[in-house]
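User: Here's a structure from my thesis project, written as C-alpha cells. My advisor, Dr. K., wants to see whether a designed sequence matches the one we expressed. Can you design one independently, without my sequence as a hint?
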C-alpha cells in the first residue's frame, strides 16, 4: 500500500496560532527539504519491561540504553553504554529486542535497506550477566533476528534461508536449504507481500520455543521487472560509470502470476519440517501466521485471490492437518488493516478479531470453537488500533474515530460496554502501553500543537511529560505560521460533504483573489485531513501568497465501510469527480482566482493529479504528478486487485480512468516527476504516459531522477525536487 511511504511527505501545514504581522523570519525550502529545521522531537526506542514498572529508551544517538521508572519518571540505570571502548564493535543501536527473561538483548546495527520494510543488518547479543557483546553470526549479515521464547536461541534469515543460533553453545544450524534469489524465499515475504500486506517477518516461534513456523514463497513463476542502475552521485556506483547495471526482481503486476506460498513447521527437537495443509487451491494468499497459546496449534490466515473471503485455519503443528476456525466474506474486500487484530487470549479459550461486518470496523470476541461470543465495540465509527487486553482488570484497549473522523482517541472498555476515554487532549492520539497495562504513554498532537509525549497511570493521572517540543514552539514563534481551517465541501453527488482544510496566506486580504493549490493523496482508506500536527513546504507556499487546500474525497478513511469502499472496481472515477467538484466550489469563492487552480499529488495522488487535470480541464490549469500510477495494469497484484479485481475481470475499470486514455483532453500545464529506480510505482508509468502525450501532440514537462526510488531523496535531491515544484507553480499559477 504505497501511500504509507508518502504520507510523511505531505502531512501539511498544521500550524501554531499566529497573527498576520511580520515577525521577521521567513520559511525557506531548505528548512523543509535539507536542514529539516522544524522536525519534532520524540522518544526513541521505547520498550516496556516485563515488570510493567519500567521501560527503556535509546539516548545519546543510539549509544546508550537507559532504563526509566514509570512511577517516578526518573532514570534508574544505564543498561548499556557503547561509549565504553570494550563495545567498540557496535557504533550505534538502531533497534533492539530483549530476550523473554530480559537477561540478554539483541542489537541491530549497520542496517542496509532492501525495500520498504526489509533490510539486512549486523546483529549482536549483549549478555547482562557477563557484560559481553558478541556478534550473533559470523556468516554474513542477517535479517529478522528474533529470540525464541526461552531466550536461548535466535532465528534469522540469510540468503533466503532460515538459520537458528544456539546462544548457550555458540552454534548455528541451517534449517532450510532451497532459498535462492528470485526463486525461493523462506521466512521472509516476497516484494508484493511485504508492500501490500504490511509485514516483513514470515516466521514465528511456538509459544514454548519447541517449533518454528514459517511461510515459503516460491516466486519462480512470477515475472521479472528490470531497472537500470546508473553511476549517479549520491551514492555513486563507480562500476556503472560506462555501462549501467541491471537490477531485476520479481514483481507480480495485476492479473499476473503470484508466488506460490506454503506453510511449514520445523520441530526443534526432532529437526523435522512438516508442511501444513492449506488446501489444494494454489492461487491464494497467506497474509499472516500466528501461534495460539497452545504450542501444538498454529493459526493460518488464508485469503482468496479476490481478497473477499477470509479463513483462519487451525493447524495441528505436529502432523499438518487443519480445520477452519473462522470464515468471513465481504461484498467488496477484506481490509488489510483488520488482519493485525487477531489476538489469542491467555485463557486459551477465546480469541479477538476485528471485522467490518456491521458497516464499521469493530472488535469481536470469539470462542476457540469459532462461535462469536459478542461484539466488544459497536457504533457508527471505526476502531483503527487495538492495543490489547488486560486480564486483571478485564479491559480492552483501542483507538477509534468515535468523536470525529478528524480526530483519534484512546479508550478502555469491558464486556458490559463500560467505556473510559484515556486521552484528554483534543487531536490525534497514539499510545504505548506498559506490559502490565498499569501505565501508558500518550503521544498527541493537533493542528496547533506539535507532538507531546506524556506518561499516564492507568487511572488517567499524568505522571510526567517526556517531550513537549517546547523548543520547536519557541522557534516557530519567530515566524508567521499559517493557520489551518477545517471546512467541508460538497462532493460530486451533491449530498455528501467532504472533509478538507484550507490554509490562507499569512497576510490574507479577503478583497483579493489568490492562486489555489490543492494537495491530496485520495487513495483507498487513506487520510490526509486530520486534526494533527505537521509542518512542511505548504507553509512556504502560504508565505509566498498561495492558498493551499487539502481534500479527502470519497474512498478515504474514518467514515465507515460504504464511504471508503464506494470506489470499488473503478479506482479514480469517484475520487476525481469529487476533486473536480471541490475545485469548482473553491474556485467560486471570491478570494480565489478561478483561472489559477492547480493540483499536486504523489503516488496515488500523482495518479489523481494527472487525471484531474485532464478530466477537469475547465477548472484545473496546472498539475504536478510525482511518481504517478498512470494505468492500474502497471501496478502490483495484491493492492490493485483488492480494489479492482484483475484486468481480465474488469477491463473498463482499468481503462476508463487511466490518465493515458485521457491525454487528448489535456489543456493545461503538466509536470511529471519520477525516479528511475522506483521499485514500487515503476517509472514505466511515467514513460508510457509521456509517450501517449507525445503521440497526442500535447506539450508537457518531465523531470527524471537518476537511481531514485519512490521517495526521491538523497543528497540535494529533495531540495531540487521541491524547488522544481515551486518554480513550476510560480510560472503557471502566479
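Assistant: Designed independently from the structure alone:
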Amino acid at each position: 500500500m504505497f501511500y504509507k511511504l508518502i504520507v510523511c511527505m505531505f502531512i501539511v501545514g498544521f500550524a501554531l496560532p499566529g497573527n498576520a504581522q511580520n515577525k521577521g523570519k521567513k520559511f525557506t525550502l531548505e528548512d523543509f527539504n535539507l536542514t529539516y529545521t522544524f522536525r519534532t522531537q520524540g522518544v526513541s526506542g521505547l520498550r516496556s519491561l516485563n515488570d510493567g514498572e519500567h521501560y527503556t529508551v535509546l539516548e545519546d544517538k543510539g549509544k546508550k540504553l537507559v532504563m526509566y521508572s514509570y512511577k517516578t519518571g526518573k532514570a534508574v540505570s544505564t543498561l548499556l553504554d557503547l561509549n565504553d571502548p570494550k563495545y567498540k564493535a557496535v557504533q550505534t543501536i538502531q533497534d533492539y529486542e530483549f530476550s523473554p527473561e530480559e537477561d540478554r538483548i539483541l542489537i541491530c546495527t549497520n542496517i542496509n535497506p532492501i525495500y520498504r520494510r526489509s533490510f539486512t543488518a549486523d546483529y549482536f547479543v549483549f549478555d547482562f550477566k557477563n557484560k559481553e557483546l558478541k556478534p550473533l553470526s559470523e556468516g554474513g549479515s542477517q535479517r529478522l533476528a528474533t529470540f525464541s521464547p526461552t531466550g536461548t536461541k535466535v532465528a534469522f534469515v540469510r540468503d533466503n534461508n532460515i538459520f537458528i543460533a544456539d546462544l548457550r553453545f555458540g552454534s548455528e544450524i541451517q534449517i532450510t536449504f532451497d532459498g535462492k534469489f528470485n526463486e525461493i524465499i523462506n521466512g521472509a515475504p516476497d516484494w508484493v507481500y511485504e508492500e501490500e500486506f504490511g509485514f516483513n517477518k514470515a516466521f514465528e516461534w511456538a509459544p514454548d520455543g519447541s517449533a518454528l513456523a514459517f511461510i515459503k514463497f516460491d516466486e519462480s513463476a512470477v515475472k521479472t521487472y528490470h531497472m537500470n542502475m546508473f553511476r549517479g552521485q549520491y551514492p555513486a556506483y563507480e562500476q556503472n560509470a560506462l555501462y549501467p547495471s541491471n537490477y531485476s526482481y520479481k514483481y507480480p503486476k495485476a492479473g499476473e502470476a503470484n508466488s506460490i506460498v506454503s506453510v511449514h513447521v520445523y520441530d526443534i527437537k526432532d529437526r523435522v519440517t512438516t508442511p501444513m495443509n492449506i488446501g489444494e487451491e494454489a492461487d491464494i494468499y497467506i497474509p499472516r501466521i500466528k501461534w495460539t497459546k497452545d504450542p501444538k496449534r498454529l493459526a493460518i490466515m488464508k485469503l482468496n485471490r479476490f481478497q473477499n473471503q477470509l479463513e483462519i485455519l487451525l493447524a495441528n503443528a505436529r502432523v499438518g492437518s487443519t480445520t477452519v476456525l473462522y470464515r468471513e466474506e465481504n461484498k467488496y474486500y477484506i481490509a488489510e488493516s483488520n488482519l493485525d487484530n487477531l489476538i489469542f487470549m491467555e485463557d486459551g479459550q477465546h480469541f479477538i478479531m476485528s471485522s467490518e461486518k456491521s458497516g464499521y470496523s469493530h472488535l469481536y470476541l470469539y470462542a476457540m470453537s469459532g462461535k462469536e461470543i459478542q461484539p466488544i465495540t459497536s457504533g457508527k465509527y471505526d476502531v483503527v488500533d487495538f492495543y490489547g487486553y488486560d486480564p486483571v482488570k478485564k479491559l480492552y484497549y483501542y483507538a477509534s474515530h468515535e468523536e470525529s473522523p478528524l480526530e483519534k482517541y484512546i479508550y478502555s472498555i469491558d464486556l458490559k460496554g463500560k467505556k473510559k476515554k484515556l486521552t484528554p487532549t483534543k487531536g490525534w492520539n497514539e499510545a504505548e502501553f506498559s506490559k502490565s497495562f498499569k501505565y501508558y504513554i500518550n503521544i498527541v498532537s493537533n493542528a496547533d500543537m506539535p507532538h507531546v509525549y506524556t506518561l499516564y497511570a492507568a487511572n488517567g493521572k499524568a505522571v510526567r511529560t517526556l517531550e513537549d517540543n517546547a523548543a520547536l514552539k519557541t522557534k516557530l514563534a519567530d515566524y508567521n505560521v499559517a493557520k489551518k481551517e477545517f471546512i467541508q465541501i460538497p462532493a460530486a453527488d451533491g449530498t455528501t460533504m467532504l472533509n478538507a482544510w484550507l490554509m490562507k496566506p499569512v497576510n490574507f486580504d479577503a478583497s483579493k483573489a489568490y492562486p489555489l493549490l490543492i494537495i491530496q493523496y485520495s487513495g483507498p482508506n487513506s487520510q490526509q485531513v486530520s486534526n494533527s500536527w505537521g509542518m512542511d513546504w505548504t507553509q512556504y507556499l502560504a508565505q509566498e501568497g498561495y492558498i493551499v487546500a487539502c481534500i479527502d474525497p470519497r474512498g478515504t478513511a474514518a467514515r465507515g465501510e460504504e464511504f471508503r469502499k464506494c470506489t470499488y472496481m473503478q479506482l479514480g472515477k469517484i475520487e476525481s469527480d469529487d476533486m473536480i467538484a471541490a475545485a469548482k466550489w473553491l474556485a467560486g469563492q471570491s478570494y480565489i482566482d478561478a483561472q489559477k487552480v492547480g493540483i499536486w499529488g504523489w503516488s496515488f495522488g500523482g495518479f489523481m493529479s494527472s487525471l484531474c487535470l485532464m478530466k477537469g480541464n475547465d477548472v484545473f490549469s496546472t498539475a504536478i504528478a510525482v511518481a504517478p500510477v498512470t494505468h492500474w495494469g502497471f501496478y502490483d497484484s495484491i493492492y490493485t486487485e483488492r480494489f479492482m479485481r484483475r484486468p481480465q475481470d474488469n477491463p473498463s475499470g482499468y481503462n476508463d480512468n487511466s490518465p493515458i486514455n485521457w491525454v487528448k483532453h489535456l489543456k493545461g500545464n503538466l509536470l511529471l516527476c519520477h525516479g528511475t529506480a522506483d521499485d514500487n510505482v515503476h517509472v514505466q508509468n511515467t514513460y508510457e504516459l509521456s509517450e501517449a502525450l507525445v503521440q497526442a501532440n500535447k506539450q508537457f514537462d518531465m523531470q527524471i531522477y537518476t537511481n531514485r526510488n519512490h521517495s526521491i531523496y538523497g543528497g540535494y535531491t529533495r531540495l531540487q525536487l521541491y524547488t522544481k515544484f515551486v518554480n513550476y507553480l510560480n510560472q503557471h499559477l502566479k
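When you compare it with your expressed construct, this may help: Residues 1-20 have pLDDT under 50 and may be disordered.
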